[in-house]
Amino acid sequence: MPVIVKNRFLLLYGSQTGQAKAIAEEIADRCVEQGLHADVICLSQTEKKFNIERESSAVFILSTTGEGDPPDTAAKFVRRLKKKTLPDGYLSQLNFTILGLGDTNYTNFCNCPKGLNQRLLELGAHHFYPPGWADDAVGLEVVVEPWIDNLWEPLKKHQMNGFGGETTVTIDKTNISESIMDSGSDTSVIKPVELNTNMNSNGNVIVEIDNSDIGVNQTVTVASLTESIPPLSTIGLNLPTLPPPYIHLQYNTDNILFPSAASEIKSVPITSATVLTSPDAVKKTLKLSIGIQDSKITYEPGDSISVICPNSTEEVDSILKRLDISDEADCEVNLSIIPETTKRKPTIPLYIPESCTLRYIFTTCIDIREPPKKALLRAFVEYTDNPTEKRRLQELCSKQGASDYAQFIREKNLSILDILTAFQSCHPAVSSLIEHTSRLKPRPYSACSAPCINKNSLSFVFNVIEIPEGEGRCCGRQGVCTGWLDKLTESIQRSYNKQSLETELESLSLSSSIQIPIYCRNNQHFRPPTDLSRRVVFIGPGTGVAPFIGFLAHRQHQRQLVDKDTTYGDTWLFYGCRHPNKDFLFEEELERYKETGVLTKLCVSVSRDPDVLDKPKYVQDYILQEINSIYDILIDDTSLIYVCGDAKNMAKNVNEVFMKILKIKKGMTDDEAKAFIMTMRLHKRYFEDVWT
């Protein structure tokens, strides 16, 4: 019996990596069972598919990028609302809520969604439900899941009060019922366990389970990935609704394709590969140079490139084998939408070609390394035969198992292969993996060169990430991109300044056949100053020094173009390494810049050299040691500070040591010091290019 749904609201998202879009789509899917209808629209479609000033109900899902900036898809919408010419009460008819996505490892946590929230209120809009600010540092799901669960009651109350718009959508009630029933656990699959399922008001499945036949290991006292302990192992669980399948996968066994035949990506040659660290260093660091003369790529110091990398061949082979599809891996497959799916507005991901192979999909399209989302674990439940394993997967995707999911999957960075290795009775459909995995994203690397020196070449530097076996990881592995680049350039790698000219020329000739796909990423917020008279402090331990090598080359070039009498501001660099003889990156270049006066002071911290006890161990320690000079720089309105590197620890520690200096030298309170640093950021005197 069809049912007509008239309660309509606008569900707007702004997404940089797809996370906000995925959450918006999840909310839209759950609207059906709540008797609501959401028009899901990207914020980039403002004035095309919606006009916010004409809307009465809206839910915003918005991420943050860069220095608290809006994602590219939301930039136009945010700019439009910032116009000072908009009248008071411009959005007085709008009732809204907003879910912001951010990361507290970065200074401006949820800056964009918080700013939008404030601006909407200034323009007269009203909250019908409190905003939520989700933190990726602890797991977005910690805030996202309860925020969505508690959204429905105020949203329906708001709609019932006559604020909702009307649209006519025909919903097949039978399909809804079937979808709800399917989202529970299938007792025929996990016999002899008795399961009773029902739904609460939030649309979540409640699973009550009789554990008497599961064979729970009573000797387990510590929870792990595959085993739980009371109370979690003995209580009823709130499971998320099973997402309806929507992709049909068809093999065309008569047509075999080369895995790489489905893309036309412009590539650039690697012209050199240099190992910057000694063989006994804790981490291997590589500097790659690429030829960009034929690519029409232009860049400035501070910019980065994004490398479009594949998944590991070994990892892809392992997951294809685990899924028992190795024989079909190189057959052409076609993906289509299941006609009878109950998923709202299903689409095949645009990043998967219409005609390709499974090997191509798993190698270049989907991210098989990222920790599986709860929606995928929920799908895995339906494909798991062993009752104990089935129960544990239910726990890991349930509301009650949120801490176990965070501890054993997200924090350990487990992959899909790790989960499938741990739960051997799980045999999922390939289509379910494609439905619930994200796009394999390019990896960004800061340029460590300057185009004023050589516009036809760009260099970047990175550590080859090594991830050991254990803690749920079924095998050791390298970083997806860094491991690939390391293997790709193995034949042309040379040691830093320890190679004959003949060998170097031979490497250069070999390198021309090695190509990588890239694109340039402009960073307008991280540029060297054009005014040479301004004092500058660079802070970049480890590979964080990379952009400053380009900055210093740029400043050296600037000095050569001006009069000798031109004032040149002091230029400091705080750099850190573990051992000066093992991983001091760009040592010769930095010493040369110091000798020529381009670099006024080079401050090197050493953290793991037992023979060096009198030097500061970390950059923040060295900054504090130079307290008087650094204080003078902080209070000089013309000076600039640049920080590059790890956001989780280093950038926070540097921020805190600056606050400490202000409190010691100027007698500021903690709040006053924090406000002083924030003012420096607002006045474009404090810049960060950091990552987690």
Automatic annotation (TrEMBL):
Highest taxon of the lineage: Eukaryota
One cellular component term from this protein's GO annotations in UniProt: cytosol
Domain annotation Flavodoxin-like: ranges: 9-152
Pfam families, per database record: FAD_binding_1, Flavodoxin_1, NAD_binding_1
Alphabetic keyword roster: Amino-acid biosynthesis, FAD, Flavoprotein, FMN, Methionine biosynthesis, NADP, Oxidoreductase, S-adenosyl-L-methionine
Annotated FAD-binding FR-type domain residues: 263-529
Entry annotated with the keyword Iron-sulfur: no
Cofactor: FMN; FAD
The enzyme's E.C. designation: 1.16.1.8
Gene Ontology terms: biological process: homocysteine metabolic process; methionine biosynthetic process
Gene Ontology MF, one: flavin adenine dinucleotide binding
CDD domains reported in the protein's UniProt record: methionine_synthase_red (cd06203)
Protein's name according to its UniProt entry: Methionine synthase reductase
Organism: Lottia gigantea
Lineage: Eukaryota, Metazoa, Spiralia, Lophotrochozoa, Mollusca
